[in-house]
Amino acid sequence: MAMSATLENCLRSKGSQYEIVHHPYSHSSVESAAAAHIPGDRLAKTVLFEDEHGYVAAVLPSTYAVRLSELWAKTGRKLVLAKEVDLRELFKDCDAGALPPVCTAYGMRTYLDESLALQPDIYFEAGDHEELIHMGTDQFLELMDSAERTRFARRMQGMPM
Q: For labelling, which of 7, 8, 35, 145 has a CA lying 20 to 30 Å from the CA of 14?
């Protein structure tokens, strides 16, 4: 599978400047960063949550973990991790586990952790397990302009930057 059509449309509509980085097949964002030889802090991962009101996406560095209590406080919702089967239905143009961060394009409220704005450039999943999108942070923040920027994540113990 190549870049998701939804992501491609978002990039085109925003006039984003980016490059595609190919890497060996990976199973997680941390593996993707290692396979592509990039710092994990610069790889944005997408984690999907749900409750009775629907889905919420959290976008954060691959070396960070969501502080659920902070996300609950920001959203006013008791969110839980979305089920894998739901991800396949919601992101039909993506491989399972390779979600791009443009979740507003999929109709979801999206929260972007502020720590990503501090990076000089950003990488993120293109919708499969062998390609990343690479762009400058300003381009990324423009692409994610409809996401709410806040702090809800913390660096995981023992993770390389």
A: 35
**pLDDT tens by residue, the chain, 161 residues:** 589 999 999 999 999 999 999 998 888 888 888 889 999 999 999 999 999 999 999 999 999 999 999 999 999 999 999 998 888 889 999 998 889 999 999 999 999 999 999 999 999 999 998 999 999 999 999 999 999 999 999 998 876 66
Going by C-beta distance under 8 Å and a sequence separation of 6 or more, which residues neighbour residue 18?
Answer: 11, 133, 134, 135, 139
What are the backbone dihedrals phi and psi of residue 126, each rounded to the nearest 5 degrees, phi first? -95, -5
Helix, strand, or coil (residue 126): coil
Radius of gyration of the chain (CA): 14
The candidate with the shortest Cα–Cα distance to 56, out of 28, 81, 29, is: 81
In this structure, the chain runs to a length of 161
- Does domain 5-155 correspond to CATH entry 3.90.960.10? yes
**CA–CA–CA angle 106, 68, 124 (5° rounding):** 45
Contacts for 31-36: CB closer than 8 Å, 24+ residues apart: 32/62, 32/125, 32/129, 32/132, 33/62, 33/123, 36/123, 36/132
